Amino acid sequence: MSEFPPDLGADLNTRSIPIIRATEPTPRGQVIVLTGPMGAGKSTIAAELAQRLGWQLIDTDELIVTSHGEIPEIFVERGEDYFRNLEAATINRALDGAANAVISLGGGAVLAEDTRKRIGQLDTVFLSVNEDIALERIGGGANRPVLAGNPQENWRRIFQQRLPLYRQTSTLEIDTSDKDVAAVTEEIIQHFQLA
């Protein structure tokens, strides 16, 4: 995993976090972005893809955890709006410094318009999954704040709300429900002619 610039969000004692805007788009072809709902396999597939290509792996959720603590705690202590601003700033910083990188985004990253604009210019893969497999993969959603209450119903509602955004920003869509990591990784490599 790569180091991430330590100055991101240095002043988090305030209620608002500035959204860092890009001055130049990331060059096309040097970055593969993975989006999709919780349980689609974004982090796992990103790690395999980065390893196969010999590229840098950037998992934006991991960057947030490393710099700011566990995501469920951020939701509880600061709220979803705070987290979404932090997430958008983290993604912008990651994209600004990315070259020959595979970037895994959190499931809600596409909610930010700036993020959608940026990843829409890149080779972005929407990893979809059916709800039963997703919930199985994430252990029923117990540690996912946005699924609290009724995980299956909430997963389905969130997925349907975000589905048009995933599709709007992606170059390739792969259903990971009944594919293994190696098969999905190979499909991405072949699609973007990376081998």
Automatic annotation (TrEMBL):
Binding site for ATP: G39, A40, G41, K42, S43, T44, R144
Subcellular location: Cytoplasm
Pfam family, one: SKI
Pathway: Metabolic intermediate biosynthesis; chorismate biosynthesis; chorismate from D-erythrose 4-phosphate and phosphoenolpyruvate: step 5/7
EC number(s) on file: 2.7.1.71
Cofactor note: Binds 1 Mg(2+) ion per subunit.
Catalytic activity, as annotated: shikimate + ATP = 3-phosphoshikimate + ADP + H(+)
Keywords noted in UniProt: Amino-acid biosynthesis, Aromatic amino acid biosynthesis, ATP-binding, Cytoplasm, Kinase, Magnesium, Metal-binding, Nucleotide-binding, Transferase
Enzyme class name: transferase
Xref: InterPro entries: P-loop_NTPase, Shikimate/glucono_kinase, Shikimate_kinase/TSH1, Shikimate_kinase_CS
Binding site for Mg(2+): S43
GO MF: kinase activity
Cofactor(s) recorded in Swiss-Prot or TrEMBL: Mg(2+)
SUPFAM superfamilies xrefs: P-loop containing nucleoside triphosphate hydrolases
Primary location group: cytoplasm
Binding of substrate, residues: D61, R84, G107, R162
Superkingdom of the source species: Bacteria
Gene3D superfamilies reported for this sequence: P-loop containing nucleotide triphosphate hydrolases (3.40.50.300)
Family: Belongs to the shikimate kinase family.
Role noted for this protein: Catalyzes the specific phosphorylation of the 3-hydroxyl group of shikimic acid using ATP as a cosubstrate.
Cited HAMAP family: Shikimate_kinase (MF_00109)
Quaternary assembly: Monomer.
Protein name, per record: Shikimate kinase
Gene giving rise to this polypeptide: aroK
